[in-house]
Amino acid sequence: MENIIDWQKEDLKYIWHPCSQMKDYEQLPPIVIDYAKGINLYDINNKCYKDVVSSWWCNLLGHCNPKISDALKKQAEKLEHVIFANFSHKGIIELSMRLAKLLPSGLEKFNYSDNGSSAVEMAMKMSFQYFQQTGKTKKIKFMALSEGYHGETIGALSAGACDLYTKIYKPILMDVIHIKAPDCYHCPFNKSRDNCECECFEYAKDSFKRHASESCAILVEPLLQGSAGMRIYPPLYLKKLRELCDEYDVHLIADEIATGFYRTGKMFASNHANISPDIMCLSKGLTGGYMPFALVATTNKIYSAFYDDYIKHKAFMHSHTYSGNPLGAACALAVLDILETGEIQKHLREVTPYFNSLIKESFLNLNNTGEVRSIGLINAIELVYDKNKKIHFDSKLRIGYQIYKKALKKGVLLRPLGDVIYFNPPLIIEKEDMDFVVKVAKECTIEVLKENNFI
User: Fold this and answer.
1) Euclidean distance between CA atoms 19 and 117, whole angstroms
2) Beta carbons of 291 and 331 less than 8 angstroms apart
3) pLDDT classification of 93: cutoffs 50, 70, 90
């Protein structure tokens, strides 16, 4: 007789899951997924879960997208990987050629890696080495926005400023200068993101005045600070930052890992402000969420500072085993093929306003909804204890986590950020699914608020 495997039990026996308190898994064991299609994940018992967080924001065009899957299969049968030093392949060359036409003006040189954190590390090292090799050796620090998130490796984590991820590691982190970020919901100037002049930019101006002479670059998540709770700030802030970087000769590093490829309604979030960063990091949606694959795009000006005779020791000696992986490149090319038909953009124009209106109609009438904010298909509902005073719930209550657990029972994967419920679905989501996931999210929110005596 065939042995029946208890997959959840075996998972817990061997696996340490990311970004999790494993003791929580005693009450909510891992959901073992067997297959997927579109926005649907199906577990080993054939229960369906609507993936409206795009499996950590990376699934761009639906699970098991036939065009991407076909491209991956064909590439796997031809060339799975090749060393990327002194070797190349047609797929990565074509991808670079096509991206050069799509990226903001001036980004023409590409260095590939295998994940977002590594791309951020690469960008930081690239900026630092540039100034070391162009006579500005005092520029050795970095600036970044408070509450930002740029990854989990030491440099990227240093640039981030979410205590949940960084606090315990502060003794070993780099000394990054953190600028008070725009927080439009809690605006200290009592302004609205829709009509302000970014008065909060004064914090950036002050920091640049004091620290720009010793700073290589500033890292930002353009317009959307994801892990901070889907904080959205105006394009004007990004415009002003570009001007400030030019004034003080500081590189602008745009971390578009979570915002690229129409997540914010445009190809890149930087496009909303019509600016070009000096360095841009891309991953996640780059391959449609299929492969660990990332890149850093930069300018010829920066590239030229590394181009010299070998004995000058100016080369950028940063590498990853899977740099330029052919499988990732094949998936990325398939993503571009799909996007270049224009069908996704047409679909987004039709469903984006519907989704945002539906969420506002469903949540704004709740006494504990502090704000509903959106950019592209990304929508966030910030739940609060006191709506008028904008006071948050006691974090010990884990209101968001309670909602998450209830939603899973009803077939929706939400995974809130604290008490911020958000939707960041694959771009192919249809109105019928929007209706269902918003209905479930509201039901679960009301149930949790009632159980905790807030309604």
Assistant:
1) 15
2) yes
3) very high
The CATH architecture assigned to 69-339 reads: 3-Layer(aba) Sandwich (3.40)
Helix (H) or strand (E) holding 252: strand 251-255
pLDDT score of 1 more than 50: no
Domain 7-64+342-451 homologous superfamily, CATH: Aspartate Aminotransferase, domain 1 (3.90.1150.10)
Question: What angle in degrees, to the nearest 10, is found between the helix axes of 343-363 and 326-339?
Answer: 80
User: Pick from 349, 417, 410, 406: which is nearest to 377 by CA?
Assistant: 349
Give the CA-trace dihedral at 284, 286, 291, 295, to 10 degrees.
-90
For 151, the 3-state DSSP assignment is coil
Direct distance between the N- and C-terminal alpha carbons of the chain, in angstroms, rounded to an integer: 54
Indicate the length of the chain as a whole number. Answer: 455
DSSP state string for 16-67: --TT--GGGGGTSPPP-EEEEEBTEEEETT--EEEETTHHHHT--S-BT-HH
Per DSSP, the residues of 357-373 read HHHHHHHTTSTTEEEEE
Taking residue 19's Cβ as centre, other Cβ atoms within 10 Å add up to: 9
For residue 329, what are its two tokens?
A: 């490149």
SS3 374: strand
- Contact between 23 and 385 (Cβ < 8 Å): no
Domains in the chain: boundaries:
7-64+342-451, 69-339
Q: Name the token pair of 234.
A: 């105006």
Rounded Cα distance between 182 and 82, Å, is: 43
Q: What is the pLDDT of residues 380-438, one digit of tens each?
A: 999 999 999 999 999 999 999 999 999 999 999 999 999 999 999 999 999 999 999 99
> Which among 433, 443, 415 has a CA at the least distance from the CA of 54?
415
Q: For the segment 228-275, what is each residue's pLDDT rounded down to a tens digit?
A: 999 999 999 999 999 999 999 999 999 999 999 999 999 999 999 999
Q: Is residue 120 a contact partner of residue 151, using CB atoms and an 8 Å limit?
A: yes
What pTM was computed for the model? 0.97
